[in-house]
TrEMBL record:
<feature type="domain" description="Response regulatory">
    <location>
        <begin position="2"/>
        <end position="128"/>
    </location>
</feature>
<dbReference type="Pfam" id="PF00072">
    <property type="entry name" value="Response_reg"/>
</dbReference>
<dbReference type="InterPro" id="IPR001789">
    <property type="entry name" value="Sig_transdc_resp-reg_receiver"/>
</dbReference>
<feature type="modified residue" description="4-aspartylphosphate">
    <location>
        <position position="55"/>
    </location>
</feature>
<dbReference type="InterPro" id="IPR050956">
    <property type="entry name" value="2C_system_His_kinase"/>
</dbReference>
<protein>
    <recommendedName>
        <fullName>Response regulatory domain-containing protein</fullName>
    </recommendedName>
</protein>
<keyword id="KW-0597">Phosphoprotein</keyword>
<dbReference type="GO" id="GO:0000160">
    <property type="term" value="P:phosphorelay signal transduction system"/>
</dbReference>
<dbReference type="InterPro" id="IPR011006">
    <property type="entry name" value="CheY-like_superfamily"/>
</dbReference>
């Protein structure tokens, strides 16, 4: 599994990378612009990401705009819905308006900071990215 972690905060980005490395090959981006560029390169190299953990609050391009650009790129490449990258928005906000905006923007799920292994694991299972049988 290929994973991209996007967060402008170094500590938050590293924490999420450490968690995500348990589940697959993990790259990171420190800005929204970097994330879009890395995503495009992955698509062009035919090695797309399976999951993106995307922070909402970033100074250059926020997570909602990054998600919009990613979905536009997928549309322009005619990527089928089931093959699109799963985007998990990462936020410090848990209010209803933020959660609704995340899903309306096209994300697949969200995580409220601080994230931990169990929360991420459960989200990946819920999204059927990881298979887990009890």
């Amino acid at each position: 599994m290929r994973i991209l972690v996007v967060d402008d905060d170094f500590v938050s980005r590293k924490k999420m990378e450490i968690i995500m490395q348990n589940f697959g090959e993990c790259d990171s981006a420190k800005s929204g612009e970097d994330a879009v560029g890395i995503f495009v390169m992955a698509c062009e190299s035919r090695s797309p990401y399976d999951v993106i953990a995307l922070d909402i609050s970033m100074p250059d391009v926020d997570g909602f705009e990054v998600l919009s650009k990613i979905r536009q790129i997928e549309d322009s490449r005619n990527i089928q819905a089931e093959k699109r990258v799963k985007v998990i928005m990462v936020t410090a906000k848990s209010d209803k308006a933020t959660v609704v905006e995340c899903f309306q923007s096209g994300c697949n799920d969200y995580i409220v900071k601080p994230a931990n292994w169990k929360i991420v694991f459960n989200k990946l299972v819920k999204l059927k990215i990881l298979k887990f049988s009890q």
